[in-house]
Amino acid sequence: MGWAAVTVALLAATPVFLTRGDVTPEAELRAEAEATWKALEARYVAEAGGAPGRAPGNLSLQRGEALLPSRNGQGRPGVVELRQGTPGVLDARLRVALRHELAHQLLWWACPASAEDRLFHEAFALSVSGELVEWREAPYQSLTSASVELARNPDVDTPRARRALARVLNEDSGFPKALTRRLKQCHDGARWTVPLSVDELVGVAVQAVASATVVLSRHSGEVLLAEGDIRTAMPYGSTLKPFVVAGSSEPPPVLAARAEVTEWLCGERLPGKVDVKTALLRSCNGYFLDWEGQGSAPRNFGPWGAVLAAVGLSSAPLDMADAIGLRSTLRLSPWGLAQAYRLLAEARPDLMAVLADNAARGTLSELPASKAYAGVATKTGTVRDADSRPRLGWIVAVDEDLVAVVARPGVMPRAFADEVPEVLAKVRKKRSGLEFARVQVLGLVPPGAIEARCRGSGFSLEDGSPRAIPEEFSKLEALVSKGAAVCLGSPWQVRFPDAPAGRDYAGIFTGSPPPPYKPPAGVPTSPKELKARRGSDFLFRTTRLQYTAGVVAAEDSALKGEARVALARVVAHNERHAGSRHPGRPVCDTTHCQAFLGTVRVQPEEERALHAPALRWREWLPFSQGGQEPWRETRPRGEVESLLGSGAASVRFADGRVHYLRTKREGGAVFDVSESRPCEWVRSALKLPACPRSAVFEDTQVVFEGRGQGHGEGLDVEAAKASGLNAERILERAYGSTSVRMPPLPLGEGGG
Prior knowledge:
Structural class: alpha+beta
Distance between the termini: 64 Å
Strand content: 15-25%
Strand order of the largest sheet: 15-14-17-20-21-12-22
Radius of gyration: 32 Å
């Protein structure tokens, strides 16, 4: 299709440009925007191979009120902000800024999958806005120094970084081939799992190897530490050998060692017969090559090939030498390697147990640092040049909570083995609450109504084998029917009818139907209460810190300071003491336990709370919103008497209980008996804001009056806010110097 024909075909796809008189002349500005948009969309169609299937929305063009001095424009989806030097004059700089910002708007519309890829966005905007001509006239900059600058600033948000990006783009006189490939990928609907890299953009290996360190949470998947260019794809050495083993559909063989073959030189005292455990720990290339020679080795890592491709493996291996890194033809970034090992650790704890022996009898044994690896599964890898000199060393380390990948150029793994335990300790010192927390989630929602999707790369595990899940929303029941569901590189997005926009859940889902629940005899129980006390079919695992932050946000998102620290300490404590809520099961996410509505941003108070020592109490600690706000509620008298008994009178509330008289008949005699029940039993059954202070019986109704909200036991959040005390004193005031036991709550809410 010619450019003229393309432009005519796209006239209907031009958005409506809205102005508000603060950038003038408005008519000329709108005309400039329309012409620019048509040219940009024509470029997109020519490179991507087709037009987007939906119409663009309206775009607002307005004056920028808070632009940095280095910027002439900025934007967000649907809005372009511009700097106008002289009113009524659309000078060259404003027009360039308009073209640049409209390029971003076009990608947000036509290629939403790339929204988080800043390098791709900036490379496209620079390529189509006409700015490259200006940058070509700047002082000379080497390609290597440009790539280093971009590695330091991957967000490309400084003039130096934009100059470096322009230098890379100017390496090719035409439209960058890497951008064409990415635009086609977007138009074809492929996943945007790996961001654009400098190497990909320039088409040459600018940085063949680089120092990098990345640490992930096994539970939430969040990146806890990133040093160096963790996204640079590099030769990976022997680090993928465990994936060859995991990909085998049959038990790996026991093979005879061949001492005369160089690839079988795997350390001293190698046994004559080598099993797969020894081959992994000794990193024996000869074992894997001979396994392939037998014809039973998996090709392309078996089902794990899809996982490695999803996290950025440059291409499928042609043979075993490619797969085990004996040839440095394939590449994978430290970030991608860490993501793959996170899934492998979840799927194959048996392999992690084998690799945990590496520091005792494998490639990291007999070193001063070997003892520091106790309980840590490790795999090393070395990339060598033609003279067998080390070009790049790798260590992957997996413990019960973390996945660490450390790459160092020019050295073998044993030379920097002492760094890895220090990295793990550094992360734990910096971030508290990294151990796991489990919670029953979404128990009030019909299981079949819950859908989830992974915006990164999602996999369901079936008998230790990964199965890629669809990119669109899927039934959560199906995803966890045979094992855990793991989302790499992104939180899960979960939706159901009452939350159509979805919630983020950074962690791992599994299926676990709870046992049947039978309510106490004679206790009125609503269908919702039955669901809450039954629990959920779905378990969710994340870090204790992420769980605690989610609960605090759900219970009182506006809480600040010492009161928030106190509540966070109680929440974290209760996650470990959920036996009174659901015996033998994790804590639930409703107010029967303590509310949890998914993953939120962790606040400093939660960090402080998880750094603090564990609370000394050994049981569930109740809390409620509390406060002194007065309230007045009425309930039908029949409903109250069905709860307390017919003829209930002289009702009073004291010491967390309701005391009353009830008329009783025995053998023709009529007399009053004194009764007492936990106040929470009444509050919950009658759906009152808090335990009442008074109850007045009228003809057809009962009037309750009280103050605050919640069951009134333990920590009163509103009182904590107003107290001015530190967290320790708040907790002492709430729970006393000795253990405080909350009365049994057959119907009551637990947390707040």
